[in-house]
User: What shape does this take?
Amino acid sequence: MDKQRDFVLRTIEERGVKFVRLWFTDVVGTLKSVAIAPAEVEGAFSEGLGFDGSAIEGLTRSYESDLLAHPDPTTFQILPWRGEIDPTARMFCDITTPDGEPAVADPRHVLKRALAKAGDAGFTFYTHPEIEFYLLKSSSYGPDGPEPVDSAGYFDNVPGGTAHDFRRRSVRMLEDLGISVEYSHHEGGPGQNEIDLRYADALTTADNIMTFRTVIKEVAIEQGVYATFMPKPLSGQPGSGMHTHMSLFEGETNAFYEEGAQYQLSTVGRQFIAGLLRHANEIAAVTNQFVNSYKRLWGGDEAPSFVCWGHNNRSALIRVPLYKPSKGQSSRVEYRALDSAANPYLAYALILAAGLKGIEEGYELPPEAEDNVWSLTDGERRALGYAPLPASLDHAVEYMEESELVAETLGEQVFSYVLLNKRKEWQEYRAQVTPFELKRNLEML
Assistant: This one.
C-alpha cells in the first residue's frame, strides 16, 4: 500500500495534477465527489478526510454524523475529460467512523464484506457487465416523451451518426482510465447503446461501473446530447438492462466448470444458480430499485419477468451461455434482471450472497426452461413452477422486508434505509395522477 501511495504522490507531482477528487457513493448509488488540493493528499492517506455523513443519503444517522473518507491509492486515475488545463485525478474512498471502524452504511464496504465471506469459503467473485443506456437529444421531453438521437436498431451501423462518435470517444476515455471494454454497439431501441466491460473482480467492476456512468455523462455533455441510465425512458421501446455474467474462481480454477457435466456446469455452479433463483425476489428492491425498473421488467422485449433459468434462453432470468469447448475457464452464468440504474456495490453483494447461500445449503437446481417463457400461458408457467418476479417496487419491498439474507448482507442500517427510501418512493408514485389515467378516464367518466 505504501508503494501505491508513493506512486500516487509521485504521479501527482510529475503530471502537474491540480485537483484530486475523492469519490464514494451513497446508498442509492449516486456518486459523491469532493476535490482536494495535491498538498492535502498525503494527509488524506494517513488520516482520511472528514465530512458530515448525515448530509449524504443513507450514510449515517444524524447523531453520528462525522465520517472520514480514506482514498484507496489502487484506484488512482487521471480524468481524461479534464484535459491538460488543470489536470484532475480521482480515487475511490473507503468510509470509516472517527475511531477507524468501517462505516456500516458505506456501499463499497457492504460489497467488501460479502467478498470477504466468499474468500473465507475459498472463492473469488468475477463479474462482467453489459451496460445499456439511451442517448437523447436533451433531458427535456414533450408529450411524446424524450427524443432519442437516432432511430437505429440492434447492431445498426449509422454512418455519421452521433452514436458512433459517442461510443468511440467513450471507449477511448474508458481505456485511458484503465477500464477495458470488450464490445460496444447500438442496441435495440432508438438512441440506445450498449458497452460491455471486460471481466474483473466484483469490487473493481463496481468501481468501474461508477466511473463508466460518469464518463458516459461527460462525453454526452461534450457532444451536445444527454445520456440516461433510466431503466425504461421510452414507452414501447426496450428498457436498459445491465446483464451481468459472473463466475466464482477457486485460485486459478473456474469453480463453475466441470468437464462432461450438462453444459459443463459444475455442482457449485448449479447450486449458485439455485440460490439466485430462490432469493431473486428478495433482492429485487436493490437489483431493480426504482418504480421505473418494473416498467422494464414487465415491458416485454428482452427483460426477464419470471424466475427460471435456461441454457442460452433469453427469456429466462438466468442464462447459462453457450460453452466454448476450448475455454473451460469461461464457464459462467448471466443474471438478466439487473438494470443500469442499480447501485453496483449493493447489487453485486446481494447476488453473491444469494449464490453462496445456494452453495452452503446445497440447494437443488429446478429443471431448466426450454420454451420462450413469455409465450406460455399463466397456467403453463404455474404448472412448470416459474414464479413471477415482483410486479412493482411495492411488491419487491414486501419480499425484501421478510428476507434474512438481505438484512444480513446489507447490515441493519443499509437494510432499514433502503426499505424506508423505497417505501417513500412508492407512496409518492402511488399518489400521482398520471397522463394515462387522464387520457383514459377524464372524458369517459
Notes: The chain has a mean pLDDT of 91.
